[in-house]
Amino acid sequence: MSIITTGHIFLKRPYEVANATALKQVLQEQGGELHGSSDERYWELIKHQLIITIKVQPITELLDQCQTELSLLGLAPDDVPEVITVEGLMESIDLCQSITDQLASSLAGVTGGAEHCH
User: Fold this and answer.
1) For every one of its 118 residues, what pLDDT tens digit does the chain have, with 9 covering 90 and above?
2) Rounded to the nearest 10 degrees, how much is the dihedral formed by the CA atoms of 31, 5, 105, 78?
3) DSSP three-state, residue 66
4) Separation CA 42–CA 35 (nearest Å)
5) Which of 39, 86, 93, 95 is the most exposed place for a label (fewest CB within 10 A)?
6) Residue 115: HSE in the Cβ half-sphere, 13 Å Cα cutoff
7) Which domain of life is it from (predicted)?
8) Within 10 Å of residue 70's Cβ, how many Cβ atoms?
9) 0.70 exceeded by the pTM?
């Protein structure tokens, strides 16, 4: 398997229309080709032949995966109703990190940065 990079943005409020608008704007500013689901909870950004996926999910669906990161950030699962995951191949680490940081800033979320997975 390829090595991937993943960043999480922990939202302290539910994901709503205003969040979707801000998320879409950040992704459009990256350039490239952008595709989103009708509910605006799943996105694909294709830039320089790299595919970055962005998913918005309830924390309950990712709790096992995010528990350590939540602890390091001093957050309890009850503090975070939803999580945005930014994921891409290792070749896209800089772009993933940039998108993660920009989304955290735009959506008043908390992030620990990107991590590497297999």
Assistant:
1) 566 888 899 998 999 988 999 999 999 999 999 999 999 999 999 998 999 999 999 999 998 888 888 888 899 999 999 999 999 998 888 999 999 999 999 998 888 765 544 3
2) 140
3) helix
4) 8
5) 39
6) 11
7) Bacteria
8) 21
9) yes
